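Retro notes
What went well: the complex prediction finally ran end to end.
Inputs used:
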Amino acid sequence: MTVATKPVIVLVRPQLGQNIGKAARAMLNFGLTEMRLVAPRDGWPNPDAGPSASGADVVLERAQLFDTIEEAIADCSHVYASTVRRRDLVMPVVGPAEMADRIAASHERSAILFGPERSGLETEDVALAKAIVTVPINPEFGSLNLAQAVILLAYEWSKHGTLAQPTAKELEPAAPHGEIEGMIAQLNGELDAKGYFHPPSRTQATKNTLRTIFTKTGWSSREVKAMRGIIRALVGPAREH
Amino acid sequence: MTVATKPVIVLVRPQLGQNIGKAARAMLNFGLTEMRLVAPRDGWPNPDAGPSASGADVVLERAQLFDTIEEAIADCSHVYASTVRRRDLVMPVVGPAEMADRIAASHERSAILFGPERSGLETEDVALAKAIVTVPINPEFGSLNLAQAVILLAYEWSKHGTLAQPTAKELEPAAPHGEIEGMIAQLNGELDAKGYFHPPSRTQATKNTLRTIFTKTGWSSREVKAMRGIIRALVGPAREH
């Protein structure tokens, strides 16, 4: 993962400083740091941006200001236009995961364009891109705001980065089967003493059921020990403390 | 894709009505409609929720109110706790995509727990879940708000929306969480009578461990019943036959 493959986030004519801040926060959560602003409505810097960034000030401080999209993407080889509306343009349309795959596979700089909050990108803006990226949303309720669109695309991109996906590493390994058997033998012994296995014709079937129940738990050695302690406690006398 | 596989979104002690509305909007963008609220700080309904939902009123109108997490997830077989902090619990940790895969592959009802805005889920809350789901974020800047966490998980789930083909049914479905809780309550009661929970300072931690051990089993209703019979047998007098 080289820095060059981190996409540049280009906000085109953003309206509210607050939303620029929220977009910065969304970006930094997933390791994106390069924001470019094209003709923000209220100028730049904007005092409303900082408080909404929740600490992602580094993104805002480094944000670059441009008059036009063409200037903002001049050094970018691959440009994606984020949009939900259908267009009259003949252009590839990709989903977030495919866009992320393409960006990660590329060795050139990529950019993702996001339009103004209210109206989104104009057709002329989209025409500057190589492909449209669309987040598939509920056809009966599509209401993604700017920062949400940014965070979903940044999140997909991050899967290719150094933010390791959690694996089941915190899961303790399952105990060796012998430990499970030992616990089952203890349990069977105690249950036998209580007259649990009755009638004798059903004893083996009941024991098979118990073995299945406890074998499927996936308990670790520690958990098997805990269960053995529970069995001892249940059959033992009440302890005074 | 049956309705049963759509996860229930459980907001645990949410603070601001505004954030409940934003969460509803995030959900509906990706087709999730079932929200449950556990002890919202400012009561329910909350007049601040509607304006933030941006039209996702149907989610708010159908939201169900509960006093405890246990009640809110009583009919859910698979419960995921969304959290970023590391825990002292030994529990599987999965990423959003893996959680979505598991939910989509399951035929029982699933729930995802989200904690209060400021503090997130408490360890006792997390102990009620089968697994932790964590969005991998920038280790140097982790600042996902409630609605963002909801939207990322809802987005991942939505990728399975077109997978219409049914998967192989498990032999027996996992029991609803309420049944597991009933068994745990029975066991805790018996262990308490035996003086098992000692010293008092360790009682909650021990109970959390027990909850994790039994929640992770994936036991069916039949198996939970068998375990309850075992507990009764162990603490009862020896039966003569």
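What we learned: The longest strand of chain B covers residues 8-12.
What to try next: split runs per interface for comparison.
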